Amino acid sequence: MATYTADVLRQLYDALYERYGAQQWWPADTPLEVMVGAVLTQNTNWRNVERAIHRLRAADLLDLAALHTVPTDRLAELIRPAGYFNVKARRLKSLIDMVWRHCEGDLTAMFAQPMADLREALLSVRGVGPETADSILLYAGRYPTFVVDAYTYRVVVRHGLADSQAGYDDLKQLFEDALEADADLYNEYHALLVRVGKQHCRRRARCDGCPLERFEHDPETTL
DNA sequence: GACCAGGCACATC
DNA sequence: GATGTGCATGGT
Fold first, then answer.
1. Residues with CB under 7 A from strand C
2. For chain A, domain boundaries
3. CA of A166 to C1' of B3 (A)
4. What's this model's pTM, rounded to 2 decimal places?
5. What's the CA–C1' distance between A4 and C6, in Å?
6. Contact A44, A35 (CB under 8 A)
7. Are the C-beta atoms of A124 and A151 separated by less than 8 Å?
8. CATH number for domain A31-140, candidates 1.10.340.30, 1.10.10.1100, 1.10.1200.10, 1.10.10.10
9. What is the pLDDT of residue A53?
10. 8 Å CB contact between A11 and A215
C-alpha cells in the first residue's frame, strides 16, 4: 500500500483526536450489551437502539440465559423502537444460539479463543456480517480488528484514499496496514470516524469546520 | 412528505 | 460479480 495513504490515515487520526478527544466507546456496560447493540444498530440511529436496550433491561433480558429462553415474538416486541424488529429478533436469537452451541453459554470462554476462529463463528451466524462481527470482536472482546462502517467508507472515499468501489475487506486492510494492531487505537479511531461522520460527513456534505477540512477532499462526491 | 440512520440476506441478471 | 430489494422505527 502507498505510504502516502498510510501517512494520511495516521494524520487523520491525530486531527480527529485533537479535535474531539477520547470518545469512551462502545457505549455499553457489558460484552453482552455490546453484542446486542451491534445487532440492533444495523442501519439504525443509535438513539432508537438505546430505547430498545432500555426496554430489554427493564424486562431483565440483558442476560444470556434470559435471551436464550425468551420467545422470539416477545423479543421482537421489546426491540420494536430499533426498527426491523422482526429481523433483528431472529438475528439476536441466532447469535445467542451460537454462543450456546459454540461455548455452552460462556462468554468469557468465547472471548478467550483466537480471533480468527471467533470471527469465523460470528460470520456463520445469519444476520451477523463483517461490521457486526468486527464490532463484537473489538468492543466486546478487545481483539485488534478494525471496524469499517458507512462513515468510514465516506471519509476514506471522499479523501481519495480508496476507490468508491472498495469493499469492506479492502477498507479494513487499508487501516490495518497503516496502523499498529492495537485494540485501543482501533477502538478510538472508529469511534472518532463516527463522530466526525455524524457531524460533517453525512450524505449531504457539510465540510465547514470539519477537523479534516484541511486535508484534500471532495465534498461533491455522492455516496 | 422526503430523507436519513453505526447492515445484512436474498433474488435476479 | 454487480446491482436491486425488503426489513421499520423515529428524528430532522
1. A 43-45, 47-48, 51, 80-81, 83-88, 165
2. 3-24+147-200, 31-140
3. 25
4. 0.97
5. 41
6. no
7. no
8. 1.10.340.30
9. 98
10. yes
Residue with cell 420467545: A71
A132 Cβ nearer than 7 Å to chain B strand: yes
Q: Name the residue with the least CA to C1' distance from nucleotide B9.
A: A127
Contacts of A57 (CB under 8 A, 6+ apart): none
Q: Which of A123, A129, A107, A98 is nearest to A62 (CA)?
A: A107
Nucleotides of C under 7 A from a protein CB: 2, 6-11
Nearest nt to the CA of A37 via C1' is: B6
Nearest residue, CA→C1' of C9: A83
Give 10-residue mean pLDDT values along chain A (223 residues): 89 98 97 98 98 98 98 98 98 98 95 98 98 98 98 95 95 97 98 96 83 89 72
Q: How many residues does chain A have?
A: 223
Residue type, A19: R
